[in-house]
Specification:
Blueprint lengths: L1 H19 L23 H8 L14 E4 L3 H12 L4 E4 L11 E4 L2 E4 L5 E2 L6 H9 L6 E3 L3 E7 L6 E6 L2 H11 L4 H16 L2 H8 L2 H9 L2 H5 L1 H5 L4 H8 L3 H8 L14 H10 L4 E4 L4 H13 L3 E3 L4 E6 L5 E8 L2 E6 L3 E3 L3 H8 L2 H4 L4 H6 L13 H16 L1
Helix pairs in contact: 1-18, 3-14, 5-6, 6-13
């Protein structure tokens, strides 16, 4: 077993090094794209010219490389990455503005967000900060929240308890121990498990890059659990892990409070996924200056610069397929008429259930194995935020150097 373990580990190292030092032509992070900060735009009409470009057939670029359904951060993010390697992309949004959870609206002169409330892991030159800078050409500015960026409030009015969540590992531990005397061991062990689990997520990224047979071999043989603590903790629920650490119900609530961000109750949430989110906010939280609409506002021009477009009020009613059952475009409903848009690549950011049930032809939904695969999924709000150290390795060296000089 040890021999197999070492052989697999060697293969992963070789594959990783090959990826890191491969040709940069197809790497959207191959160069530092940060530009000098432009003057901040606050005028709503000016911003709407970028965020609310209505769909008409004449605005569809010719010779598209890809069509993306949905302009949430996933759709826009992928559009930016493709644009940075020279691809012409069309992003279609059924709403009247682009941005998904980055939408904002104004009421009586005040701007309100509908989704994003804060972002973590932006301290210094973190990989995540570097990635966001590259995907907005360095135009996003961030304001740190207070050190106690969250408060867990428990109990009814006459017996209300408030537990602040502080940024920084040392302060996080110190403040929790003040409020839960006698639970020091449980608090230390919780954070240790969280950090160890998150550290092991590197293998999750590598598996996505590996050839499929190798990835399946690692999973089915159980080697992933020996290579990474992340996979060992992935099947364990957040509730079970926390309940083993302490009997204190308030402390259990504090350990698990952030489950609302990813939508699964502690009994259904993977401790591994929960660990990624806790470490994401361990160094604090930040909010984009001038509001969350700034994120989409600075991503869309990058797509346009490569010849693409982001068009709203463009409801896609179906994905088009050729005789070989390959996606070849989309159909947009414009009034009572359909506008067909052809592209060799179609990506849906409209959600797996919406895509499967509403955008695919019935005959493709009925293909062997398709319905079973979808039925295995829970219709819950889930996400995975992955650091991409392999893809950002070369860029970070230049990024840190420029920051230092």
């Amino acid at each position: 077993m040890l021999t197999i373990f070492l052989i697999v580990l060697l293969i992963l190292v070789i594959f990783t090094l090959k990826y890191v030092f491969s040709s940069p032509e197809s790497n959207p992070f191959a160069k530092d794209c940060r530009e000098p900060l432009k003057k901040k735009v606050y005028d709503e009409k000016t911003k709407n010219k970028v965020l609310k470009q209505g769909f008409v057939a004449s605005k569809v670029p010719d010779n598209l490389d890809a069509v993306i359904i949905g302009s949430g951060i996933g759709g826009l993010g992928l559009g930016v990455l493709l644009a940075k390697v020279g691809k012409k992309v069309l992003v279609l949004e059924q709403h009247d503005r682009a941005g998904g959870c980055c939408h904002t609206f104004t009421e009586k002169g005040f701007e309100f967000d509908v989704g994003i409330h804060y972002i973590g892991d932006l301290l210094g030159d973190s990989p995540f900060r570097c990635m966001l800078d590259q995907m907005t050409n360095g135009q996003l500015q961030w304001e740190p929240l207070e050190k106690a960026f969250d408060h867990v409030v428990l109990g009814c009015l006459e017996n209300r308890r408030s537990y602040p969540i502080f940024s920084g590992s040392a302060r996080y531990l110190e403040e929790l121990k003040k409020r839960f005397p006698g639970e020091e061991k449980a608090i230390d062990e919780y954070l240790r498990l969280v950090k160890k689990t998150e550290f092991g997520s590197w293998l999750f990224v590598v598996l996505k890059l590996c050839p499929l047979p190798l990835a399946k071999f690692l999973i089915h043989t159980g080697l992933v659990k020996h290579l990474s603590f992340f996979f060992k903790m992935a099947p364990r629920s957040l509730r079970d892990v926390v309940n083993e650490l302490t009997e204190n119900k308030d402390l259990r609530a504090v350990f698990t409070y952030i489950f609302g961000t990813y939508g699964n109750k502690p009994k259904d949430a993977s401790f591994a996924m929960h660990s990624l989110l806790i470490t994401h906010y361990l160094n604090g939280a930040w909010y984009p200056k001038a509001g969350s609409s700034e994120i989409a506002y600075h991503m869309i021009p990058i797509i346009e610069k490569a010849g693409g477009a982001v068009l709203v009020r463009a409801p896609v009613n179906r994905i088009l397929f050729n005789n070989a059952k390959e996606a070849c475009g989309v159909s947009v409903l414009k009034g009572q008429e359909e506008v067909h848009i052809k592209a060799p690549m179609v990506i849906s950011d409209a959600g797996i259930f919406n895509t499967y049930e509403n955008l695919l032809p019935k005959e493709l939904q009925a293909m062997p194995g398709q319905s079973a695969s979808v039925n295995d999924l829970n219709n819950l709000l889930c996400f995975l935020k992955i650091f991409t150290p392999l893809q950002l390795f070369q860029l970070l060296k230049r990024y840190n150097h420029k920051t230092a000089t």
